[in-house]
Amino acid sequence: MTQVDIAGLTKRYGGTLALDGVALQARDGELVSLLGPSGCGKTTTLRCIAGFLTPDGGEIRVDGQDIVALPPQKRDFGVVFQNYALFPHLTVFQNVAYGLQVRRIAPAEQQKRVAEALALVRLTGLESRLPRALSGGQQQRVALARALVIRPRLLLLDEPLANLDARLRDEVRWLIREVQQQAGITAFYVTHDQAEAMALSDRVAVMKGGRVVQFATPREIYQRPAEAYVARFTGEANMLPARPAQRLAEGLWRVAIGETVLEVPGATTLAEGASALLMLRPEALSLAPTGVPARVLAAAFLGASQQCDVALADGTRLRLQASPHLAVAPGDAVHLAVDAAHAWLMPDIAP
Amino acid sequence: MTAFLRSLSAIGLGLIYAFLLLPLVAVVGASLTAGEMMRLPPQGLSLKWFGRFLGSETFREALALSLQVAGTTVLVVVTVATLAALCHRALTRRLGAAFRVAMLLPLLLPELLTAIGLLFFLNHLGLGKTLPGLQIGHVVIAFPFAFLAIVAALEQVDPALEEASASLGASGFETFRRVVLPLVKSGMLTGGLFAFIVSFDMFTISLLLKPIGGNTLPLALFDFLTYDFDPTAAAAATLSVIFAFCGVVLIERLVGLRRAF
């Protein structure tokens, strides 16, 4: 029911450009993550969508209507904050009912909808508690119920798990996804945690310096990053400079690592002969009887796999995820097999 | 060594408290005397000086005026200081600091200077030596105390709460009424109590601005002490202390002092 189109969003603080033309879309029922390190503009973008900040330029269209001029109380968006932002003087029931009271909904209807919302986040029975008598995870679930009970057009989540410990984080993360899907509600989710973004999102917008550098599905972000910054931010990645790139077909390139010549998929925006980077995720490499010769620098046995740091003949260091069944020790001469289908050639852009 | 230091600091603390509280004990003691002179130890116990105090029309009128002025001061000051504190919160850091200094000016200037300035100014307006003029003087002096207390309470309110309220559909006023007001109530009570005590004790301003024919309690006491030295004055002072003490107990009961400061 709710489709969001954001275009050319800019925000300036004094001399610094916090948002530099952010463009994003969310289709109906989609959960879109804004991923990036602190200061990349992800929270500023979310606050512009919520209406807490007025952008200096650009537009935010919800179902075709530009909402930039609309104050937050007229937007009908549910917001979940990093520090929960529960009203400390109100009970759980009153917190959740707040948006309904403000809307002058009949008390009987309020009772019913609050009970539904609390059941959804599995907090039935805690209605009369004050927020300070709840754990962090419970508080964030109350905040989620409070945002959902008004049946918002859009759900905005600003690092909702950042203040929770690891165990609760997992629990609340799946709850958020489940509830969002059940309600079929369009959502924006700000996080600096790539694992969180990957697990939750339909699409991820990776941000850098106030811009969206890549906006795609988690799989694409991970396997076909637009630049080294995205690759490093979404997980462990080996980057090899690969200059002589020859185009074989649309998106298929021939590159050489040392003596070995590979045919790998790559970005269509690459130019032949331009400087490029070959990304090899640790799981795209394995130890094999033949292949690229290398020497083991360090090996750590992790149980289900072992992590090896190896050096190529020219001194390039690579990290790989090897099978746990092969015993390797530092100093061993080994050969590497490259799973070319899971390598990725991308333009060399300064991070 | 640490035990020695601890007992030393305990003794020091005891001396400071004794220094602060002994005059109070002396006054209360003197007010309970059955004799004719203000002197310690009291000669027998009696409440007759309290009776004398309440029986005096001069003192009764002065007490009534003081309570009336202090009460009005509390209402005006708490309202204006709350608005000023909200304004202070909405300003940027630098503007806010300037605004804060401006609001605290009555506290920074010598009271006598403020009093003389107000006297000229109010005379100009035709309010010199009138009850409204006196009232204005009290409001000006008591204002910074309430302002500070309310600003401190407001700083404890997470701005995200107001954003949460707005996102849930509440207008600015509704957010104030449902979220901000309940959370700064303790600061408003504290500020009101400060304003009451400041107004009730105010001397310099009252001396210069008092209406013709009217006297506040501190002025009446001063006049009385100029000619007499009987324990009625001690009884009046004791009653003032009891008033202030009741105020503190009331705040403690309503919000808890630790939250109020």
UniProtKB/TrEMBL annotation, chain A:
Residues 4-234 form the ABC transporter domain. Transmembrane segments: none annotated. GO terms for molecular function: ATP binding. The keyword Nucleus does not apply. SMART domains: AAA. InterPro entries: AAA+_ATPase, ABC_SmlMolc_Importer, ABC_transporter-like_ATP-bd, ABC_transporter-like_CS, Transp-assoc_OB_typ2. The keyword Acyltransferase does not apply. It comes from the Bacteria. PANTHER family: SPERMIDINE/PUTRESCINE IMPORT ATP-BINDING PROTEIN POTA, SPERMIDINE_PUTRESCINE IMPORT ATP-BINDING PROTEIN POTA. This is ABC transporter ATP-binding protein.
TrEMBL record, chain B:
The keyword Cell membrane applies. It is a multi-pass membrane protein. It comes from the Bacteria. Keywords: Cell inner membrane, Cell membrane, Membrane, Transmembrane, Transmembrane helix, Transport. The chain crosses the membrane at residues 12-32, 62-86, 98-122, 134-154, 187-209, 229-251. Pfam families: BPD_transp_1. Its main location: membrane. It is found in: Cell inner membrane; Cell membrane. Residues 63-251 form the ABC transmembrane type-1 domain. InterPro entries: MetI-like. The keyword Transport applies. Belongs to the binding-protein-dependent transport system permease family. This is ABC transporter permease. It comes from Falsiroseomonas tokyonensis. The lineage of its organism: Bacteria, Pseudomonadati, Pseudomonadota, Alphaproteobacteria, Acetobacterales.
